[in-house]
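One chain given next:
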Amino acid sequence: LGMSADPSGDFDHPSIPDSHPHLKRHVLYRLSRQDWQARKRAAR
């Protein structure tokens, strides 16, 4: 998909209890506007 991990944006989901640590941590991935636009143009 072309996305890159952004560890500074990772977070623990507030609605997931601590008793489920394997589900609690969420990892943020980002795609820059420039990359998104380039992929959009290439898909035409």
Summary: The chain has a mean pLDDT of 96. The chain has one domain: 4-42. The CA atoms of residues 12 and 24 lie 5 Å apart.
